[in-house]
Amino acid sequence: MIVDSEMIGRAQSSLRTSFIADALAMPVHWYYRTMDIQRAFDGGIQKFEAAPQFHPSSIMSLHSTSSGGRQSSRNAPAPKIVGEVILKGKAQHWDVPNVHYHQGMAAGENTLNAQCTRVLMRSMIANEHAYDKEAFVADYIAFMTAGTPLHNDTYAESYHRGFFANYVQGRAPLKCAMKTHDTASIGGLVTLAPLVFRLKLSGADISDIQVSCREHIALTHPDEELMRVSDRYVILLCSLMDNPDEDNLKILLAAAGKQHKSFDVAGLVKRDLPDQQVVGHIFSSACYISDSWPVVLYLAYKYRNEPFKGLLANTNLGGDNVHRGMVLGAIFGLLTNDIASQWFEKLVEHEAIGNEIDALISAAISPK
User: Fold this and answer.
1) Which CATH number do you get for residue 15?
2) Residue 86 forms beta bridges with which residues?
3) Which range of residues forms the domain containing residue 143?
């Protein structure tokens, strides 16, 4: 495969835009009433904002601090994962109603899953092989359990808590993934874009990239439905790297949904419904992949020529907008560098993230 400067630039733009999308949505992550977003931010989110202290939809106090999923009075006493194993110094925020999931985070700061994407990038940069799942898991464990926290987030999704609940019980690190009610969620796709680009730029075939992404997902999100969506996402990212024209772009976005309950994204966009009717009525704004993947494709198709408007729409639709945003941002960043060029340097950690992205691309294209 011939790698040109434009392909490299698209990969860099994609990764930068995904971090922008994450930080943009962070202040209203898991707001499930769009009117609450409008109340908290006059006119909705239009730029990077800090997380408010009050979260009208927060149910963090109902989530288990000892495992994945929700709390249960039937559970036997278990070691506290939140506060003792991960999220050290953050446990006190979990038992208070309406505390923001990203309590205390500043405007332009990235959430935990975005930080885990950086862990994967650094792991691939440090390893002479394109991807080593054992090296990644070791780096992930070290990052999450550091004595002095290496990130500023307050909340860890169910998959993190389930993983470390198994880990402290002595399960082998590669076998610590826990399946819960929300394993098949859009958050499972968040770390895939750098893995796809690292392998694609190194000359790997799409089928091999799909296998590697499935193996990576299985480390934290062991779910076949999610892996089938991963296969479509890999095809879409790899195809967009080749800079398709407008007609082929629409074909690719439509094809990405065809195997997902025969979702007709072009037909849905043609109906010209308000976004809040599509996201919140036709599809849930929650994390479940059965709804979140069609939402990503809908927003990508509708806003393909106005990508920043699409990221704002995703943000102000609430729900799991952060993780949808990282996937949507990766798609939009392959279409244009405009978002990255205007917003990336406003991220709190833009310099470190930019260096990691550049080093990852450099490692991919360097002669072996």
Assistant:
1) 1.10.4080.10
2) 82
3) 5-365
- In this prediction the pTM is 0.95
C-alpha to C-alpha distance for 311 and 353, rounded to whole angstroms: 20
Measure the CA dihedral 224/227/229/230, to 10°. 180
Return the SS3 of 282.
coil
**Helix intervals (H) in 150-288:** 158-168, 192-201, 206-218, 224-240, 246-258, 265-270, 275-278
**Which residues are CB-neighbours of 118 under 8 A, at least 6 positions away?**
352, 353, 356
For residue 149, give the nearest of 105, 213, 179, 206 by alpha carbon: 105
Task: Specify whether the CB–CB gap between 339 and 346 falls below 8 A.
Answer: no
Dihedral class, residue 86 (left if φ above 0, else alpha if ψ from -120 to 50, else beta): beta
In sequence order, what are the beta bridge partners of 183?
A: none
Long-range contacts of 205-210 (CB under 8 A, 24+ apart): 206/234, 206/235, 206/238, 209/234, 209/238, 210/234, 210/235
Q: Give residues with Cβ within 8 angstroms of 302, minimum separation 6.
A: 269, 275, 310
pLDDT, tens digit (0-9, with 9 covering 90-100), for 66-112? 544 445 433 444 578 999 999 999 988 888 899 999 999 999 999 99
User: C-alpha 95: how far from its chain's center?
Assistant: 26
Q: How many domains does the chain have?
A: 1
Per-residue pLDDT of 288-316, as tens digits, reads 999 999 999 999 999 999 999 999 999 99
Could you give the CA distance from residue 96 to residue 88 in angstroms, rounded to a whole number? Answer: 17
